[in-house]
Amino acid sequence: MGNKTTYDQAKADLSGAPPHPAVGVAETFASYNMVNEFVDYLNTLSNTTAANENALAESQLNSRFFPRVQVKHPLEDYIYNQLMNGCGKVVLTGNAGDGKTTLAFAVLQKLGFAGTPSWRIELPEKKLTVIKDMSELPADERGKVMREIWQNEHWRYLLVSNTGTLLEAMQWLKNSQPGIWEELLSAMRAGEPGLLGERLLLINVGNINNIEPALQVLQRMIEEENWQKCSRCALAQDCPIYFNVQLLQQGWKTVRQRLWLLYRHMYEYGCRLTMRQMTAHLAYALTGGCNCRQVAKMTVGSGQNKLWRALFYNRFFGDDGWQEDGAASQLYAVRQVRQAGYGQVLQPAVEQRLWLTEEGRWSDYALAESLCKELKSNKQGEKVAYRRQLRRLLYFWGTCFSEVGEQEKADKNFICDFLDSPALFDYLHMLENTSDHLMVDYKKKIVHVLQEYFAGLPLLEKRDRERLYIPLSRADQAAVVQFLLARFRLADFEVESREGFRADHFLNRKALYLCLKRNKNLDLELSLPFLDYVARRYRGEMTADLHAFYANRLKRFKSQLISYYQEQQAEEDDELEVGELLYLLAGKTRRVRLEFAAGELEVSL
């Protein structure tokens, strides 16, 4: 393969001269042993084509390429210790694609198992039985297996089952041990391991944030050893797959952070991608669903035209920069990314500098910078498609959005606009910093937005609000004057970060969430979608929309505040008087008091 004459001849055959009459382009390419079979393997990880046999965990064990992308799951050691030194019986449940089976096989390998996997695997020397998938059993056998696991006190068990199948198999617990059934349902909801009856540990893998492991898989995909054959290929300089690899390798630190932020944004907005879904998405973005033979045909048939359309920053969004790839629509992650509409919010300062000036560079990475210049210099650069592609490129590889000294702020602004999430970095920062000026700042913003929501009218004044007034208002019709039902001081509330009951909690990773607290029994969870809404409203975006789910939560919080105020009977010097009103005029709030004396009505501010 290292013969230079051979590669020169191959390049001549494929790039200029027509192939041998009896041999096609792909066959000529393959005859010189230039096909990288690792690319074929990556394409089997997703379901963009019918060749997706390695998308299932059982097939991975039989693939010689699986060790090249395998990463150690953070749960692996925990499960091993629970089996050998803990309760001895572990059930892994969750949705299809959460990584349950792969995790079970990793534990088996740690225990020294090297045989052929079957639905039931026994290791007599360890007194361990592994049921790799409860769904493979007939319905009448599932209950028997669960009874065996529950009653056998002399063997260890590791069971893998989808949530629905597990509930079906444990129906007998409803009648025999109803208390355990309630523990089971509670453990499935909680997200952290739940010990049932002091004998069975349940872990809902679906509640684990798998972003970190998925990005580790991508990092392993682009390791040098997987692409040595490509580096010696005659078509390396024209191959979009190898170019993607080099592009990712060159800017990995930045790209990894940007990928993490995008996936985390989806996670916080309720899109919980499984390990399989993220792996399939990243593999597709890397190869575009193409293999070496298809790249060879592409190179001969159309030069750079089609190669440009197979680059990572476009394929990640399931298109070629101009048209959607129908095959990519098979990927759930691609459909969710498209629905999110990333990159549609423009940043005027960046757009002006990109298209109206020749100012400076945009990326510290040579390949990304050359792509940026080529997109900018294109004669059709004014078209929307080129603008969109350039924004995508800069999202992943852009590092020079402003002058020195303002660079970090400019980077964050561009990322927030691209993801359409103005509170993203503040949210992540407050999760990890429990005492910070941002907490105070956001408390003022939240109370201001709550006042608008409770009153039903926009408030233009943004001075430090001392009170939160809760009036009697109608959802379908705002009134300028409203009766007051309750009022609270700004100092009555605090924004704080709390530890939550999520699966990350026992992996030595902080599982935190934010809340607006009145007291320990009265608080409002502050999700990223709500803080984005607060940030938009506070800066004056009157069209900012609040999701129906959170609107219902705010109504419930309002009723809880009113009930609390009435039950506790506010402090004597702060009690509401009969006839107190909230007066809203010109975007300002004023408290009005009505008094009746000698048949006359007196109004005082």
Give an overview in words.
With 605 residues, the chain is α+β, with helices and mostly antiparallel strands. The chain has 28 helices and 14 strands. The strands form 3 sheets. Strands 2-3-4-1-6-5 form a 6-stranded mixed sheet, sandwiched between helices. β2 (120-123) and β3 form a beta hairpin. The longest helix is centred in the last third of the chain and has 21 residues, at 548-568.
What is the strand and helix layout of this fold?
Elements: H1 4-15, H2 25-31, H3 37-43, H4 57-60, H5 66-69, H6 76-85, E1 89-94, H7 100-110, E2 120-123, E3 128-131, H8 139-151, E4 156-162, H9 163-169, H10 172-176, H11 178-190, E5 194-196, E6 200-204, H12 211-221, H13 228-231, H14 240-250, H15 252-268, H16 275-287, H17 292-302, H18 304-307, H19 312-315, H20 332-340, H21 348-356, H22 366-377, H23 384-397, H24 407-419, H25 424-432, H26 437-455, E7 467-471, E8 481-489, E9 494-499, E10 512-519, E11 522-526, H27 528-538, H28 548-568, E12 580-585, E13 588-597, E14 600-604
Parallel strand pairs: 1-4, 1-6, 3-4
Antiparallel strand pairs: 2-3, 5-6, 7-8, 8-12, 9-10, 10-11, 12-13, 13-14
Helix pairs in contact: 2-17, 6-7, 8-9, 12-15, 12-16, 22-23, 26-27
